[in-house]
Design brief:
There is one protein chain. By secondary structure, this protein is an alpha+beta fold. The chain has five helices and ten strands. The strands form two sheets. A five-stranded antiparallel sheet has the order 4-3-2-1-5, with no helix packed on it. The chain has a five-stranded antiparallel sheet with strand order 9-8-7-6-10, with no helix packed on it. A hairpin with a 2-residue loop joins strand 2 and strand 3. The chain is elongated. The structure holds N-methyl-lysine (MLZ). N-methyl-lysine binds next to loops.
Length: about 260
């Protein structure tokens, strides 16, 4: 059975890459959207509004979306099977009305005409490329501290980065980004759609960012240099019987003299 599973996984990866989506199970998140297609999306800044969005980019199984009538500073990313996107016409079908995005560039009264114009002749994403539903959430939080994962950097949501579970808090997981010393960490629910198993990016064709370079417990290379220079300084002091710090003109060009001050 072990062999069969490996073969199946290999096939799925192959299909996902070879662009033969019809043969790939839906849970593998085939992305058949194209740049320029229009769809309906929840306004991320005003989630009760359904707006028109245009696909402005594709990355793996995610769509980079821009709300029509808004600026280019508020793009957002959604998984192809997100429940927050739907084909054009869905809102009206359900008795709703399409809303202008928060920060609509024009006068609110021009919204109906804007809507008409934006949809006229537009390429609408066909209903068949939307996924029927999001995958079911696991029943409970089974994460453990130290587990590795791939996660969306919420401060730079176009990035998916290598991360480690740093702590658990009930149904929440602390996502810590490898090599960034906490600057981008966040808590999210264990069933958040911003976190993925290791291998996710390879499977979907998204770009996994390299880990940061900030080592745990070590501030930065400048601090490291200072520490080295302090140690060197102490060694010299011992040797020279406390003749001060590094004498002027010594060949220690890589050592910052400031690191010796105080000698602690
Ligand atoms: N330009 C930014 C990107 C950091 C991304 C970190 N992701 C965990 C920086 O260098 O600060």
């Amino acid at each position: 059975p072990q062999k069969a599973i490996e073969w199946k996984d290999a096939q799925i990866i192959k299909h996902a890459r070879s662009g033969r989506p019809s043969r790939v199970p839906s849970q593998y998140q085939v992305n058949e959207f194209k740049v320029g297609m229009k769809l309906e999306a929840q306004d991320p800044r005003n989630t009760t509004s359904t707006c028109i969005a245009t696909v402005v980019g594709l990355t793996g199984s995610r769509l980079r979306l821009r709300l029509d009538g808004s600026d280019n500073k508020n793009d957002f990313w959604r998984l192809v099977d997100s429940s927050e996107i739907q084909p054009i016409g869905s809102c009206e079908k359900n008795g709703g009305m399409l809303q202008p995005p928060l920060g609509f560039r024009l006068n609110a009264s021009s919204w109906p005409m804007f809507l008409l114009k934006t949809l006229n002749g537009a390429e609408m994403a066909p209903a068949r490329i939307f996924h029927k539903q999001e995958p079911p959430a696991p029943e409970q939080n089974s994460f453990q501290v130290g587990m590795k994962l791939e996660a969306v950097d919420r401060k730079n949501p176009h990035f998916i980065c290598p991360a480690t579970v740093g702590a658990l808090r009930g149904v929440e997981v602390l996502v810590t980004f490898d090599g960034w010393r906490g600057a981008f960490d966040y808590y999210c629910r264990y069933d958040s759609r911003d976190i993925f198993p290791v291998g996710w990016c390879t499977l979907t064709g998204d770009n996994l960012q390299p880990p940061g370079t900030k080592a745990q417990g070590m501030r930065c290379s400048k601090d490291l240099k200072r520490k080295q220079s302090r140690l060197l300084c102490r060694k010299l002091q011992r040797k020279q019987g406390h003749q001060g710090c590094l004498p002027q003109g010594q060949p220690f060009s890589s050592v910052e003299s400031s690191g010796c001050e105080g000698g602690t």
